[in-house]
Automatic annotation (TrEMBL):
Bilayer-crossing regions: 21-39, 86-105, 117-136, 148-169, 190-215, 275-294
Keyword Zinc-finger: no
One Gene Ontology cellular component annotation held by this UniProt entry: plasma membrane
One Pfam family matching this protein: BPD_transp_1
Keywords: Cell membrane, Membrane, Transmembrane, Transmembrane helix, Transport
Name of protein: Carbohydrate ABC transporter permease
Localization per Swiss-Prot or TrEMBL: Cell membrane
Family the UniProt entry places it in: Belongs to the binding-protein-dependent transport system permease family.
UniProt-listed Gene3D superfamilies: MetI-like
ABC transmembrane type-1 domain mapped to chain residues: 74-294
Organism from which the protein derives: Natronobacillus azotifigens
GO terms (BP aspect): transmembrane transport
SUPFAM superfamilies per UniProt: MetI-like
Length: 309
């Protein structure tokens, strides 16, 4: 019997070792697959553009230069677009999360007599909408076309975010709210003093969702404000760079290269490929820097918020 237990223990030990080895190898492959495109783009953005055309650059620049970024940031539209992107992300996230949280709190209350009807009405909007042309006409009639607020107000309430926050609030002990009502607290007091502070994990999660969506959005700029350079965003500028690069390569135009003088005084050149890589890094880095600060709330907020439907 003792020999049998030793053999079983040895077998399980070998199986665990094989599983761990295969698991580690698969995870390393997955990491490489996810990181390589970003590292390759970063390497190209820091490489001399004429050398990048030769190919063969992987995760490290062959001839280092910062001229691609110098060229990008000398464009006045880029700095202005960056400011617009930051403003729409900050303002849109703050107002959107706050508005969604208030609606979520309202429909989470058991004594709200229109709870089921309002919830159903919100959910239906996730499956159907009026379409692009009616939406454009509505925004134009409301005076939003050609203004900064067209980026904020139409997406102020997110139904998916409401459902997540509502589910989280419904999981909070109802005795806390009952005690507050006995002490004379109104709905606003209960929301600001109880629901909101205890919902910080899910608020952080939803904030990440909204911030990423706001930062990455470019289509609304194209539809509503494409003729107003002052209201352009980084993502829209990146889209224009990509479109121009594809057009230049498609026509085989070597004239797409642009020559300029670098900060060191030397004449250097940029190509559509190098500008595209530099712009991609510029628009990606800010949101990547924000994510680690919210990561600790991310899984917890989704897990707790998804307990109830």
């Amino acid at each position: 019997m003792g020999v049998f237990k030793k053999l079983v223990g040895r077998r399980r030990g070998v199986d665990d070792l094989i599983f761990d080895t295969v698991n580690i190898i698969l995870m390393l492959i997955l990491i490489v697959i996810m990181l390589y495109p970003m590292l390759n783009t970063l390497a190209i953005s820091f490489n001399v553009s004429t050398d990048s055309v030769r190919g063969g650059i992987h995760i490290w620049p062959r001839e280092f230069t910062t001229f691609n970024y110098e060229h990008v940031f000398t464009e006045a539209t880029i700095l202005r677009a960056g400011l617009t992107s930051v403003l729409r992300t900050v303002i849109g996230t703050a107002l959107g999360v706050f508005a969604s949280a208030m609606v979520a709190y309202t429909i989470s209350r058991p004594h709200f007599f229109m709870k089921k009807f309002v919830t159903l009405a919100f959910v239906l909007t996730m499956y159907m909408n009026a379409g692009l042309i009616p939406s454009y006409l509505l925004h134009r009639e409301l005076g939003l076309v050609g203004s900064f607020w067209v980026y904020i107000l139409p997406t102020l309430i997110g139904v998916f975010n409401i459902i997540i926050i509502r589910s989280f609030i419904e999981g909070l002990p109802e005795t806390l709210f009952e005690s507050a009502r006995i002490d004379g607290a109104g709905e606003f007091t209960q929301f600001f003093k109880i629901a909101l502070p205890l919902s910080l994990p899910v608020i952080a999660t939803v904030s990440l969702f909204v911030a990423v969506a706001q930062w990455n959005q470019w289509f609304d700029v194209f539809i509503y404000n494409s003729s107003i350079p002052e209201l352009s965003t980084l993502q829209y500028e990146l889209m224009k760079v990509l479109s121009n690069s594809n057009a230049a390569y498609g026509s085989g135009a070597g004239a797409a290269d642009q020559f300029a003088r670098s900060a060191s005084g030397q004449i250097e050149t940029v190509t559509p490929q190098s500008v595209r890589a530099a712009m991609t890094i510029v628009v990606s880095v800010p949101i990547i820097c924000v994510y680690p600060f919210l990561q600790k709330y991310f899984v917890k907020g989704l897990t707790i918020g998804g307990v109830k439907g």
